[in-house]
């Protein structure tokens, strides 16, 4: 069953009937009825094979060696089956990802690392016994505080493979001659992804095939990553993820807990092993956003036209596995300035490895850039929207390519009109209503349109005019199941009710990660290509049973810069005596190409705004430098925005399509909503109070 490669042409406008219409989620009824099985809820074979429960034992030192694991008391506990440690766990093949080398040696690289796994007949017994495992350490000195150290270095690349440093023109000369200069440092804290469903998996090994129901953003990526480490062929690793309760990037790559449950299952052939990572354990084991320190120097002429942009980033990585957040990446394409310099330097710390968190790079980087732009507007005596309009580039400053669509100014103008921007007083600290200082702020957003290669789909004709459409894509709650059905319907020229979609299973054609706002475009491209091929081969009235499998290639323009844009508007109220910060109004206007489904799109963008408000006002993890322990390891101490924080929240998008970015005409919507929101809140807080806050979260103490 070999895949057919062929170029794909965009969906024809006159063939579009389902795309763009407001389909409710096809899996909504199942979810609200509680009948959608999430990872550890699977009860069917082989997961019904008297499942065991795994519990993780985590290191209590930040760096050192495990001298001994004494499991005697744990093993004696009723219901306990075994305790695995680095001396007894199955051996892995050599790999390049230290994070997945679970229980392979005695080295401890960070506080909270997995040092043992308890297997028991019940979850309670496993948990109780985990507390009885005694681990002796040879503790070594560690560095867990984020501060510049002598180990600080410049990496070659930042996530995923961008150059760490870029330079064009004479930045220092231009700054020296600039009429106006903004020179300031902006900071974002450690943040932890907290999807509603914590990480979880259930694994079964029959001696030949490993079956894994995982809470992941990509079943094929999990199989592709784990199989070689386990010494298995791809076909021996069967991964499914039919329902996933969010990920925000933390489930974008497999982390140590997945490997732990797989290793545990391989010691118990014929039995299923369940692992439900606790909320507390997630703060050590499933990724986080590294803190960032962005030093900006902006130089402008007297009219506010930028002559120089410099963005130097200092941020931690883990000492044992490099992850460089691409914090300066958006700065490279955002505004016009002949002289530009961006760079990243990394401080290696003895901490868990940072990873993807919704809009990695863009979120912290654009917070810094957009507050700096607000400061420049004030310094130039210009309206912040006008400042941005004056600095619109004709082409992508970094690549010289034309933008497929540069929607920023349209977003700013539309948002200004809807938000009532013209009523805004030019001066800060101009409005006091009762005991509240009131202000408004704006910030721009951007996110690249990514299209991942390597996606395939299979379409088979079924009885009664139905089509079975299959692709390994995962719906992490975004609505992928619904929009892929719409895309398939239009590509085949049938009603959406004729499509029977199967997803989230490595037995289906390969699909890339539900991440990087790339899913709908990338999987959609494969479905469109396959449908075109299917119709060419089998016509519009195919015999039941005929099928086509194809791969999408060359589906995105290489001659254009492909980016979404947005404008975030915030109203902020700051209490004059307590400093309490409230956000009564948020509006986001976006240029994202064609919107496939306004119901699920609105949900994604609103969710982005809520998360943007959440990082703007609340989210901050505190790692105790003495121990390396993240002490804010629950939702009582790690605050996320709750219902009472969300007031009037509006999103809209421009009516457009972008066939250069993807065959479905869309550029992705999963992440852009979170970009720019925190900056608009900080800028509004300045407008309200006259106090400039250069770091998030924007907390009450800043105004006292
Ligand atoms: Mo998103 S951080 O690319 O899963």
TrEMBL record:
InterPro entries: Ald_Oxase/Xan_DH_a/b, Ald_Oxase/Xan_DH_a/b_sf, Ald_Oxase/xanthine_DH-like, AldOxase/xan_DH_MoCoBD1, AldOxase/xan_DH_MoCoBD2, AldOxase/xan_DH_Mopterin-bd_sf
Entry annotated with the keyword Repeat: no
Region (Disordered): 1-24
SUPFAM superfamilies associated with the record: CO dehydrogenase molybdoprotein N-domain-like, Molybdenum cofactor-binding domain
Gene3D superfamilies noted in UniProt: Aldehyde oxidase/xanthine dehydrogenase, a/b hammerhead, Aldehyde oxidase/xanthine dehydrogenase, molybdopterin binding domain
Keyword 4Fe-4S: no
GO MF: iron ion binding; oxidoreductase activity
Domain Aldehyde oxidase/xanthine dehydrogenase a/b hammerhead: residue ranges: 33-141
Keywords, ordered alphabetically: Molybdenum, Oxidoreductase
Name of the protein this chain belongs to: Molybdopterin-dependent oxidoreductase
Source species taxonomy: Bacteria, Bacillati, Actinomycetota, Actinomycetes, Propionibacteriales
């Amino acid at each position: 069953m070999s895949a057919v490669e062929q170029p794909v042409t965009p969906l024809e406008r006159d063939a579009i009937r389902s795309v763009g219409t407001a389909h409710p989620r096809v899996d909504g009824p199942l979810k609200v009825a509680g009948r959608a099985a999430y990872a550890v809820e699977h009860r069917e074979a082989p997961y019904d094979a008297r499942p065991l429960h795994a519990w993780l034992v985590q290191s209590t030192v930040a760096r050192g060696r495990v001298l001994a694991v004494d499991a005697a008391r744990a093993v004696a506990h009723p219901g306990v089956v075994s305790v695995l440690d680095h001396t007894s766990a199955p051996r892995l093949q050599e790999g390049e990802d230290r994070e997945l080398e679970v229980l392979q040696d005695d080295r401890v690289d960070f506080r909270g690392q997995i040092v043992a796994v308890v297997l028991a007949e019940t979850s309670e017994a496993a948990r109780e016994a985990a507390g009885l495992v005694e681990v002796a350490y040879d503790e070594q000195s560690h560095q867990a505080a984020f501060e510049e150290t002598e180990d600080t270095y410049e990496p070659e690349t930042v996530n995923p493979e961008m150059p760490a440093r870029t330079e064009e023109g004479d930045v220092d000369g231009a700054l020296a001659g600039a009429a106006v200069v903004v020179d300031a440092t902006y900071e974002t804290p450690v943040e932890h992804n907290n999807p509603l469903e914590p990480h979880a998996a259930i694994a079964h090994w029959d001696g030949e095939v490993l079956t894994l129901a995982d809470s992941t953003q990509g079943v094929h990526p999990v199989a592709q990553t784990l199989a070689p480490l386990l010494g298995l062929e791809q076909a021996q690793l069967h991964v499914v993820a039919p329902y996933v309760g969010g990920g925000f990037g933390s489930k974008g790559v497999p982390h140590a807990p997945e490997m732990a449950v797989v290793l545990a299952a391989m010691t118990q052939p014929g039995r299923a092993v369940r692992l439900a990572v606790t909320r507390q354990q997630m703060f050590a084991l499933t990724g986080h956003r590294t803190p960032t320190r962005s030093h900006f120097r902006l130089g402008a002429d007297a009219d506010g036209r930028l002559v120089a942009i410099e963005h130097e980033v200092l941020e931690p990585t883990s000492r044992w596995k490099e992850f460089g957040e691409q914090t300066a990446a958006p700065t490279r394409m955002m505004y016009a300035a002949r002289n530009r310099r961006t760079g990243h330097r990394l401080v290696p710390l003895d901490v868990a490895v940072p990873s993807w968190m919704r809009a990695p790079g863009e979120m912290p980087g654009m917070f810094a850039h957009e507050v700096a732009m607000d400061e420049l507007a004030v310094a130039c005596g210009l309206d912040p929207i006008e400042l941005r309009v004056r600095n619109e580039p004709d082409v992508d400053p970094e690549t010289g390519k034309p933008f497929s669509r540069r929607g920023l100014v349209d977003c700013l103008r539309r948002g200004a009109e809807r938000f009532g921007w013209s009523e805004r007083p030019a001066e800060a600290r101009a409005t006091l209503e009762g005991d509240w200082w009131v202000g408004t702020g704006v910030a721009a957003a951007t996110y690249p349109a990514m299209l991942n290669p390597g996606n395939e789909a299979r379409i088979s004709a079924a009885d009664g005019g139905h089509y079975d459409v299959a692709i390994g894509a995962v719906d992490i709650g975004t609505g992928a199941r619904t929009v892929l059905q719409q895309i398939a319907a239009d590509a085949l020229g049938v009603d959406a009710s004729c499509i029977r979609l199967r997803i989230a299973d490595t037995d289906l054609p390969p699909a890339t990660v539900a991440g990087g706002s790339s899913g709908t475009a990338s999987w959609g491209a494969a479905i469109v290509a396959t449908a075109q091929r299917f119709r060419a081969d089998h016509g519009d009235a195919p015999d039941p049973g005929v099928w086509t499998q194809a791969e999408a290639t060359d589906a995105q323009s290489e001659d254009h810069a492909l980016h979404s844009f947005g404008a975030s508007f915030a109203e902020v109220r700051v209490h004059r005596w307590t400093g309490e910060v409230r956000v009564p109004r948020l509006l986001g206007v976006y240029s994202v190409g064609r919107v496939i489904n306004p119901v699920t799109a609105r949900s994604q963008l609103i969710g982005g705004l809520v998360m943007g408000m959440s990082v703007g006002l609340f989210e901050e993890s505190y790692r105790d430098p003495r121990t390396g322990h993240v002490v804010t390891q629950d939702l009582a101490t790690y605050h996320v925005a709750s219902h009472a924080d969300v007031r009037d929240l509006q999103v809209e998008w421009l009516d457009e399509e972008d066939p250069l970015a993807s065959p479905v005409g869309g550029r992705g919507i999963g992440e852009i909503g979170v970009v720019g929101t925190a900056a608009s809140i900080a800028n509004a807080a300045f407008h309200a109070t006259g106090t400039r806050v250069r770091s998030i979260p924007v907390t009450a103490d800043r105004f006292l």
